[in-house]
């Protein structure tokens, strides 16, 4: 009967929603303990210079392995951490760990650059620029070693904390990259205003580049913007040689992607850096 069905459906949804709420509560409780329980790790994805095909830096990417929920991806838990406020503490852990590990990386490659993802929530209600300055100072790293990856929408935000922190970061001398460029709200005027150095072309435009004329048009247009505004372009998500060759033919200088390496441990990155110091040790020849 329709009435019964209706009631059952209502109960079903109610139950499901309740489970969702419980899940979020449980996950938040676990997240609160993640740092002290040593459940967070940073992996590093190499950034490759396309002329030499050598590693010039890396992007730090966060991983969470929880005893109860298993491996939880950053696309899932970072938005939750932004909502429950734990992003501040987690973000500080990421910055600290990335800088500590970079001390090791620059011993092998003095020109090494580290890129760290910072979410918009970390720009609010804090003095992020001073926090980063302190961490860099603690590890005796020059600010120019660090690159902060932000999304396009942050630049358009009128919140004064965000604006002050952006200006503070540039005064400090860390560089700014726009992550996932081409997928969000873009006001190209802000790129100049905030003195952004790098546009990271979103993976969705790179993934089927050889097949899609549409994506080729977009990628070439972004590369033209970079050339005209004197910005560095980084192609995200390069997975094959044909895509790489196409990007090289358009004078794209830097890329990341599974073609060279997935995000890897600190020790594995050190190994790659050491190996590429030997003559002819290009990254390509190191990865099967
Ligand atoms: P993102 O910053 O755009 O990072 C690039 C993502 O693409 C990473 O996913 C990386 O593993 C993946 N990727 C790189 N090359 C390839 C490729 O060739 N093919 C494919 N299919 N994927 C590739 P990941 O590590 O799962 O990170 C997802 C997102 O989570 C990041 O996107 C970033 O927005 C966020 N995130 C990760 N770590 C942090 C962090 O420490 N703090 C903050 N605020 N966000 C983070
Ligand atoms: Mg990123
Ligand atoms: Mg990205
Ligand atoms: Mg992303």
Short description:
It comes from Reinekea forsetii. This protein is of the alpha/beta class and 288 residues long.
Distance N to C terminus:
62 Å
Q: Note the main sheet.
A: 8 strands, mixed, barrel
Structural class: alpha/beta
Heteromolecules bound: ligand C2E, magnesium ion
* Uncertain runs: none
Keywords: Membrane, Transmembrane, Transmembrane helix
Protein name: Sensory box/GGDEF family protein
GO molecular function: catalytic activity
Organism: Reinekea forsetii
3D structure, described in words:
The chain has helices at 2-34, 74-84, 87-108, 128-138, 152-156, 160-172, 188-193, 203-206, 213-229, 241-249, 266-276, 283-286, and strands spanning 40-49, 54-66, 70-72, 113-117, 146-151, 175-181, 198-201, 232-235, 254-255. The chain has 288 residues and is an alpha/beta fold. Strand 4 (113-117), helix 4 and strand 5 (146-151) form a beta-alpha-beta unit. The model has no long low-confidence stretch (mean pLDDT 92). Ligand C2E binds at residues 45, 61-62, 73-75, 78, 94, 117-119, 149, 179-180, 203, 236-239, 256-258, 263.
Task: Output the keywords.
alpha/beta; binds magnesium ion; 12 helices; 8-stranded mixed barrel; binds ligand C2E; 288 residues; 19% strand; 9 strands; globular
